Amino acid sequence: MSSREQFSSKIGFMLAAAGSAVGLGAIWKFPYMAGSHGGSVFILLFVICIFLISLPVLIAEFMIGRRGQADVITSLKKQAPGTPWYWIGYLGMFVSAVILSFYSVVGGWIISYLGRALVFAVKPAEGQTYESLFNHVIQSPLETIGSQFIFMLLTIIIVQAGIKSGIEKASKIMMPALFIFFIILAIRSLTLDGAMEGVRFMFVPDWSYLTSETLLLALGQAFFTLSVGISIMITYASYLGKSENIVGTGINVAVMNIFISLLAGLVIFPAVFALGFKPDQGPGLVFVILPAVFEQIPFGGVFLLIFFILLLFATITSSMSLLEMVVSVVVGEKRRSRVRTSWLVGIVIFVMGIPSALSFGVLADVKIFNKSIFDAMDFMTNNIGMPLGALFISIFVGYYYKTDISRKELNTSQGIYKGWITLIRFVSPVAIIIIFIQSILPLFK
User: Fold this and answer.
1) The domain 10-444: what is its CATH number?
2) pLDDT (tens digit, 9 = 90+) per residue, 63-85?
3) How far is CA 391 from the centre of its chain?
């Protein structure tokens, strides 16, 4: 049996993990969540929750993966023989597949907009608005499914090439490009007249927004933005050498995620305020408001093109981690063909996503729990699957692991270890349970 492939460098692993975490959560969801819930207060709570709740679970997933050196199910069977803990892996596999099925739909929207941006045709036709253009894109069966297929094709091509030649290589190109071009876009946005209003919105607190609702939303954003709870990070860490410092790597991933989220805010909010738009536009902020903002900026078409390229990069770095999680389980210890498995799993997930792609058009009247198919898949994974997975992981590492094992795996100071074990045993599980209860309560109303 051949040895398990590993990341060739610490930076390769860190960029891949950060890429998985960044995704649409940081660039698409973070700005509209912050914009709709007071800006600075939401951002402050988000950062606090990242370090107190999400990061401990992220480190726990790194610990399981590096110690197991195998796919998540095999890793858990090795570390907890004769117990049902390995079902965490099956939960993660299922949730990852469902997330990718509708995530690829949004990736397809980005492909559609990128194609338009390449020929500077994002501006709607006479008599149309940016909102009607967006509705046209998401309601067109041929365009939506075709773009979704192209997005999945790109994801499969990267994952089937393996860890070093596929995921690591792509991450080393996409993530630095993401950082560099976002800084360029942020500088351009900050030089607009009136841009400081957007900066104040982000960094000067309006304490009237300090409510339990804002706290819960920030908690949920911090939790989901690091990709914890679906065993992606367990999978990535299984390709990591035993000598790597998982605490330091976890902190670096969290900091990069916060940095990209803030950069996304600095691209969007100064421009939104400078040009007289409102920040609380919701999910349409990127696809509806942002093109209108860039239209009013000199060379706006070029900057909009750069933005959608970056958004595609961020989305693919997340989609390839979702696909890799499922592929690694199917390949398993039997070392099935990675290439064949990647194509088979990718095509199955593409087909799974077709109903979500059509849920804004021909299947718009089909409802699940009074939600569209797309929204139902989103709710089932983000509000139920991910919190449950993270809760089981925190309990497994916090209570099933013996302290001498977890202390050895962390290989850090006594103070840091005590702080982490307290958070993973008490703070993270309680916060996750609160998120879970608050998330499912609407189903019973």
Assistant:
1) 1.20.1740.10
2) 999 999 999 999 999 999 999 99
3) 18
